[in-house]
């Protein structure tokens, strides 16, 4: 049995662990197409920009430590995309396989449904990332397409898989 999971808004104190988790994903994985892990200062600036835009940024705590995090961000900068957000979810490698990613993603979806957004998009790095695809399917996302060989990392071409789910009323009513 694992310690209880607590989901809270991200605070400054969580950023060193978030930077470590993301840095590992950048260095060793293909979920992110970044090539160099960002510094703590850069991660702090990124979070501040998201918070200034009103986007939720959540942290999962287990046994008093950061087990993972998730946030929403603008899908695209142009105003017509304003009702659509993109999600990001990262779980500490030592904590994977415990349902933390799903708990974070479900909480993020719920938070976004209380906001002004109507669609959530997942841009999944690497079509071989089946764990992320399964995670998003479990949270109500549907596969909408695959962009072939759009990234190059770790010596190989990578696809991105696009998944999407409606938030709240989705496209059933006009945006207010």
Quick take:
With 176 residues, this protein is an alpha+beta fold. The protein contains four helices and seven strands; from the N terminus they run E-H-H-E-E-E-H-E-H-E-E. A hairpin with a 2-residue loop joins strand 6 and strand 7 (156-166).
Summarize the topology.
Blueprint (H helix, E strand, L loop, with lengths): L4 E5 L5 H14 L11 H13 L4 E6 L2 E10 L9 E8 L8 H14 L5 E7 L4 H9 L3 E12 L2 E11 L10
Parallel strand pairs: 4-5
Antiparallel strand pairs: 1-2, 2-3, 3-4, 5-7, 6-7
Brief descriptors of the model:
alpha+beta; single chain; 7 strands; globular; 176 residues; 7-stranded mixed beta sheet
Report on the structure:
It is built from four helices and seven strands. The protein has helices spanning 15-28, 40-52, 100-113, 130-138; strands at 5-9, 57-62, 65-74, 84-91, 119-125, 142-153, 156-166. The model has no long low-confidence stretch (mean pLDDT 96). The longest helix is centred in the first third of the chain and has 14 residues, at 15-28. It starts with a strand and ends in a 10-residue tail after the last strand. A hairpin with a 2-residue loop joins β6 (142-153) and β7. By secondary structure, it is an alpha+beta fold. 28% of the residues lie in helices and 34% in strands. A seven-stranded mixed beta sheet has the order 1-2-3-4-5-7-6, with helices on both faces.
